[in-house]
Fold this protein.
Amino acid sequence: MTGIGPVRAKRITDAWVDVDPERLGRLLRNSAKELKSRGAKALYETFMDAAKGSMPEDRAKLLFAAVIGVNMLSRVAGDARWVAALRRSVKDAAAE
């Protein structure tokens, strides 16, 4: 049987109980923000690497921003016609 053992479990539990809720909230928000930031940067770098040689760097940056922007609008506005039209425009621009 594996586990962390009752003494260590008690220490971990006590540590969590002693954490100030506001401080814990700040720590979790900062951790989530950092993870999202790293993920976004990795996505950008992957996109830019994939675009290398197939288009000018400035166009790749613009296309990346457009893809991210239309994705965010889609999350907020759903499948609204105007968002769908923007999505088609971005896809068409990517195909050029």
